[in-house]
Amino acid sequence: xxxxxxxxxxxxxxxxxxxxxxxxxxxxxxxxxxxxxxxxxxxxxxxxxxxxxxxxxxxxxxxxxxxxxxxxxxxxxxxxxxxxxxxxxxxxxxxxxxxxxxxxxxxxxxxxxxxxxxxxxxxxxxxxxxxxxxxxxxxxxxxxxxxxxxxxxxxxxxxxxxxxxxxxxxxxxxxxxxxxxxxxxxxxxxxxxxxxxxxxxxxxxxxxxxxxxxxxxxxxxxxxxxxxxxxxxxxxxxxxxxxxxxxxxxxxxxxxxxxxxxxxxxxxxxxxxxxxxxxxxxxxxxxxxxxxxxxxxxxxxxxxxxxxxxxxxxxxxxxxxxxxxxxxxxxxxxxxxxxxxxxxxxxxxxxxxxxxxxxxxxxxxxxxxxxxxxxxxxxxxxxxxxxxxxxxxxxxxxxxxxxxxxxxxxxxxxxxxxxxxxxxxxxxxxxxxxxxxxxxxxxxxxxx
Length: 448
Ligand SMILES: C[S@@+](CC[C@H](N)C(=O)[O-])C[C@H]1O[C@@H](n2cnc3c(N)ncnc32)[C@H](O)[C@@H]1O
Hints:
- By secondary structure, this protein is α/β, with parallel strands linked by helices.
- The protein folds into four domains: about 5-140, Orthogonal Bundle (N-utilizing Substance Protein B Homolog, Chain A); about 140-175, no CATH class; about 185-240, Sun protein, domain 3 (Alpha-Beta Plaits); about 245-445, Vaccinia Virus protein VP39 (Rossmann fold, 3-Layer(aba) Sandwich), CATH 3.40.50.150.
- The chain has helices at about 5-20, 25-30, 40-55, 55-65, 75-90, 95-110, 115-130, 145-150, 155-165, 170-175, 195-205, 245-255, 270-280, 290-305, 350, 355-370, 395-405, 430-435, and strands at about 185-190, 210, 220, 240, 260-265, 285-290, 310-315, 325-335, 375-385, 405-410, 430, 440-445.
- The N and C termini lie far apart (about 70 Å).
- The structure holds S-adenosylmethionine.
- The site of S-adenosylmethionine has 18 residues, from α13 and β6.
- S-adenosylmethionine binds near residues 268, 288, 289, 290 and 335.
């Protein structure tokens, strides 16, 4: 197989596995071992896989508009080959048009779709002709929701959910934001290191690193990192990978040394470990989860970060009567639809559905009803999600407050790193297209 085809060939094989139900990252990891690719080709394959999965609706619309049959009627393998071709033409400036066409036609031949290689050639060349004439080859319908969904590649129901919360222009910007490659943020372990020490070590290692303007101990790595475990300070527990917006949650909890904190849905421990760090590792932090393999990750992270106050508790947090009235603060970082981290999980927008959201809302409500009984009379509970769906956030909290008039929202103190993100209702929402971080929702509740 010619070298220049290998990246596309790998991408194609991974896409075929995804069509059989595999998760994108798992399928990539499994297939990559069979190819000895140079780093640059590995990067191209990764971009092609995640890019075509993200942009699938847009690419399907092009197939339908430029072909004789709709995308759904095309043979599955031909459809994936066309996705790869159109993706390179539309989104990859570094791939010359002729290379995109030639490699896609060759890919069809390698897959024994030789008879259809003329179709591939014709459709891709038609795209190039229309583009050269100054037109966007992608035609959009008049309906505003469908138009945004096709242009940015989202199911209509996600666009509609965001329209409930944002102006049309913001919805468009948010859709586009999630189509970019994710960045990696670190949280510096203040008990083992400092921002300056970690920045110096990473810069010496050849990385570009920026401190976050609003969030103490948060750093952003600019560009590719390579294997994260091989970066300086990892083994020493100087830092943890955690998006800046996720770091805000523990600031909202605001744990104090000596207190008892329960983290009801704690694995893999990003926030459990942050809570212990903020308490100077003094007190008791119970990190709970119902999945034992995930609970182990809390132990591993606590060990690496050299934190001693964390105890793990295995089980369903809807049924933990032993926690009744023992907590100064509870964190409920619930399982959610993840609409705030769509850039990190290319296929997530196609896996979630309105039905799956409804199931999650029931679980979230049950967890909240159970966890309020753990809070001491003057204690607080923080509810958080990495989603941007109103049913899992604003509506869920409003429904809870209507059912529990003895609870109210406590906005963060003015000096809190969370304060800049607080809305007039007292909860905080991080909008990625405005704040350039993962999407998050968080609110602190207390008894009146
Ligand atoms: C959003 S993740 C938590 C992320 C974590 N707080 C962090 O910052 O690393 C939600 C977690 O809830 C756990 N979970 C789901 N249902 C649960 C339940 N009924 N009781 C306890 N944990 C649950 C999942 O296993 C998952 O690890």
